[in-house]
Queue: 2 jobs
Job 1
Amino acid sequence: MTLKAEKSHAKGPARLRLGMVGGGVTAFIGAVHRIASRIDDRFVLVAGALDNDPQRGRDFALSIGIEADRAYDSYQEMIKAEALRPDKVDAIAIVTPNFLHFPVAKTALEAGFHVICEKPMTTTLEDARALAEIVKRTGKKLFLTHTYTGYPMVRQAREMVADGAIGALRRVQVEYAQDWLAAPEEDPEAAGANWRNDPKKAGQGGAIGDIGTHAYNLAAFVAAEEPSHLLAELTALVPGRQVDDDAMVLMRYASGAKGTLWASQVAAGNGNNLSLRIYGATGGLEWWQEKPEELWYTPLGEPRRLLLRNGAGATEAAVSGSRIPAAHPEGYLEAFANLYKDAADVLSGNQQQTLVPDAADGVSGLVFVTACLESASNNGTWVSLDALRNG
Ligand code: NAD
């Protein structure tokens, strides 16, 4: 694959050119993408349509070093103009509210750009399937930024499960609890809260789409197995809310394993309390996002062991996802940077395989949300995920 890459200096490493849609001055995750893309110095942000308010977007773009002729009013204008440039961007990061992921990704892929897209990939399963087809047809890459797959100890857990460290899968317990949407009236300054409670912008799923998809992806990433059936109860615990803010899901796996997923954005005292506990016939693994450097491993009948990032017993995936020795803390930004580093390796032709989720994982996420919505609207019946996957 030939890519237009810039040289940072005469003999420096080739950097990929990045464009960004969303991530304006008031936004949350756009800034994280910008930092993460720079940590390993593999990307340079050169273009952006950063805001739904064009003037505010242009002003902010200039303030973060984007040249005036590449600070665009809209994603349509950006993609059209960039496609004509000899130094066009290589990839476009999509960090807008959910309903824009599909149209922006479609336009970008069809214009010949790779895409780094926020989750959930789309707001409907139909769009997710269509986007996966566009990825196939265009031959361009789509990286889906399920952040937690970037953590070294999550990658280590995946490797250990694959290597038989816990034996045959029996039980998956995944929880993602937050409290930032617990108040009846969202803070008008919290821009990210407003669209999340609007089904036209977020999709029909609330917490289940926003953080349930992260929890589902994390469990699937580590277990390398997805459930065949689920039963869901989705509730808006804050009166008047249009989408769920609390979700309980039971899962059955074809192997006979069982799972439970809880996602809540109204659980007072929880910041970003994502945890995965996974048990097999001969052992168990436990990981908490708020203590991301630690992985607890218990071989059945032996004492619990604390494995540390880049410490004794670290596996290849955990070592390659680390930058500094154990006990110098790494965290969220470095995990996010691993997604960008892996994407850069793939786009530069240095690496074929990547642990970064892709369009197929995006479809899986929408299969999950759709099954939850179907189950919940039928008063909690069991729904076949396999039927939706094949549908
Ligand atoms: P946000 O509301 O804080 O920011 C959204 C940004 O998009 C704003 O700057 C807004 O002006 C801009 N925008 C809206 N419409 C636009 C348009 N037409 N053109 C250009 N820009 C436009 O939202 P957020 O919390 O940053 O979330 C953005 C996305 O990231 C969502 O899909 C969300 O699910 C996802 N997200 C992912 C993670 C993660 O851990 N991977 C964390 C938070 C959010």
Job 2
Amino acid sequence: MNQKPPPVDRVAASRAAVAARRARALVKSRIASGAARPIDVLAASEDRESAAASLRVTQFLRAIPHIGITKTERILSDLGIAPVKRLGGLGRNQRVKLAEFLDTWEKSSPDVPRVIVLAGPTAVGKGTVSQYIRENFPQVQISISATTRKPRPGEVDGKDYYFVDDEEFDRMVAANELLEHATVHNSFRYGTPRAPIEARLEQQEPVLLEIDIQGARQVREQMPEARMVFLLPPSWDELVNRLVGRGTESPEEQERRLSTAKVELAAQDEFDARVVNDSVPQAAQKIVRLMGFREDLN
Ligand code: 5GP
């Protein structure tokens, strides 16, 4: 007798497919940014239910910095693995061979030049840390943002920011000259000029962006390989002290920024790495190391 197949919940199935695709995209972007080691992803794929297991071996290899289409084909043919295989479907032997390859690759591959985004809550000291990096690590390039706010005493146009008016900022946005842009603290607009970043990456050199969280999210969308670093205060009280202590904002503005800071702190899990700003030199050094520079370059 012919039995009818059970009814398929198409909506649920397509939702599950979208979620699985997203989970795979996240794994790939974590590999690309250096946040996840390929060898750890391979190990995680032993769990058949994991996102890593459902990743095709071709997609997996392509996510690794410096491995392109041609290299992927060669590696798979050397290892005797069909390109359509998923990580979870690899045989024992294939798994061992791939792990061996990844181990060798990791040891021999150069540090990857990338965009490093430094974000964090207001008043955490991003500006101070990036200033320290600028002064002590001249090999690190820091992107110069455009902003519609007026220069503060001592700030130099073209060094601290490109100070522009609203009209010029609108023009830059319309001409797609900004990699990201956002209105910060409900007041002024800030944006990262795209061309210097691209020029820098073409030279295989890393660049540091010190921007707010809205901007960081836009960069991550556009450049999943960017490494996202979140600067944390040693404690909430310390953050309040810093904001009130610097005395540059009115009490109302301080209140507004503190409530923004609470929301911003909640975003930390979206980042690849967290650095606590308990000492500026140490935080700076950690960030420089996350950029792939070795300390002896200092
Ligand atoms: P300030 O006006 O104190 O120099 O900076 C205010 C805020 O704007 C800081 O949180 C800083 O990270 C952020 N910011 C500076 N440049 C940019 C930028 O290019 N893009 C975005 N999204 N935020 C920026």
